[in-house]
Design a protein that fits this description.
- The protein is an alpha/beta fold.
- The chain has a single domain (3-154), classed as Guanylate Kinase phosphate binding domain (2-Layer Sandwich), CATH 3.30.63.10.
- Helix content is 35%, strand content 22%.
- It has seven helices and eight strands, in the order βαββαββαβααβααβ.
- The protein has helices at 14-22, 52-60, 79-85, 93-96, 101-104, 116-126, 133-143, and strands at residues 3-8, 32-33, 48-49, 64-70, 73-78, 88-90, 107-112, 152-154.
- The strands form two sheets. A four-stranded parallel beta sheet has the order 6-1-7-8, covered by helices on one side. Strands 3-2-5-4 form a four-stranded mixed beta sheet.
């Protein structure tokens, strides 16, 4: 099954692009996370919110196709989602690095790379009380340093 994987720093438009693609028939693999929900996020729609112990049990049982720790929280995609059920995902550069080379050939990775000015304004609008804008942008810069494993790069914030 061919897959589309969206990747980008915080507030780059990944969820916006995901909704566009879902409207065109793609099936989104909702990520699992130990991060607390932001205001208006819905469990099972935006993420599956898990306790740390639940996520770690999934690690021990081999549930995750890929999982990463970012900003102190864990994020992951299940084997069932990636291998059987879904064809649209949002991942981080570290998550993409876990994709099997054979399966990578069936993936189109779209890198949403909008300006820091746009991202900062969007993050401010979000009002995320769980993380500061400065910390998030700093950690994103580290996470995306030397990132080149993508097929398409979109720099236009108004896609």
């Amino acid at each position: 099954m061919n897959k589309i994987i969206l990747v980008g720093k915080a507030a780059a438009g990944k969820d916006h692009m995901r909704r566009i693609l879902e409207g065109r028939g793609f099936k989104y693999g909702v990520s699992y996370t130990t991060r607390p929900p932001r205001p208006n996020e819905i469990d099972g729609e935006d993420y599956y919110f898990l306790e740390e112990s639940e996520f770690n049990e999934g690690i021990e049982k081999g549930k995750w196709y890929e999982w990463v720790e970012f900003n102190g929280w864990k994020y992951g995609t299940s084997n069932k989602q990636f291998l059987e059920e879904c064809n649209l995902f949002i991942m981080t550069p570290k998550g993409i690095a876990h994709i099997d080379p054979v399966e990578r050939k069936q993936c189109t990775i779209i890198y949403l790379d909008v300006s820091d000015t746009v991202r900062s304004a969007r993050l401010l609008q979000r009002g995320d009380k769980n993380d500061s804008i400065e910390r998030r942008m700093y950690n994103d810069d580290l996470d995306f340093k030397n990132f080149t494993d993508y097929d398409i790069k979109i720099e236009n914030a108004n896609f």
